[in-house]
Amino acid sequence: MYNLNMRITTQTLVLVMIVGCASVPDLSNDPRTGGLAGVVSGELRGDYEARVREREARRDRLMALEEQLKEKRRDLEQNKKAQEQILNAEQAKLARLENDAQNLRRTVSELESRTQIIEAQKNTLLSRIYNLEVEIKQIETTGEAETLRQCNRLEQELSDRMREYELLRKRNDLMLR
Fold first, then answer.
1. Would you say the pTM of this structure is higher than 0.85?
2. What mean pLDDT value characterizes the chain?
3. What confidence score (pLDDT) does residue 88 get?
4. Residue 38 pLDDT exceeds 60
5. HEC states along the chain?
């Protein structure tokens, strides 16, 4: 009976081995489960070797992906640095432009003030010229010798004021350019 049991056990074991060898590797076969028969079956079918190869292939894919991500990160960091440099340059340019604009506003304000002063001086001179012309006409109509001297003096003063007016006008034109 012992022999018979041994023979059945051996035949069963051989049958299990043949079935195990004939089947495709099962990657889900975990050596920690299934007991002795699962281990033997997994070993015979190459489950564990296939599982190791599958895990190595997965590891290789993950490492390649990690390298791609590192390269992408380096590219993004370089792009970020370039963008930061451009931003800094643009901010410096903006600061210069704002400073220039402030200086131009100050210059315009000064020119407007000067223009108002020159305009007031011009109006004063025009008023004085008008008054001198009125006096000259009055003197010419009276015809007296003293008034003739006054007329000459007034004409000279008128001529001087006209030159002042022309100088102010030219100065104003130059400032406005």
1. no
2. 79
3. 96
4. no
5. CHHHHHHHHHHHHHHHHHHHHHCCCCCCCCCCCCHHHHHHHHHHHCHHHHHHHHHHHHHHHHHHHHHHHHHHHHHHHHHHHHHHHHHHHHHHHHHHHHHHHHHHHHHHHHHHHHHHHHHHHHHHHHHHHHHHHHHHHHHHHHCCHHHHHHHHHHHHHHHHHHHHHHHHHHHHHHHHC
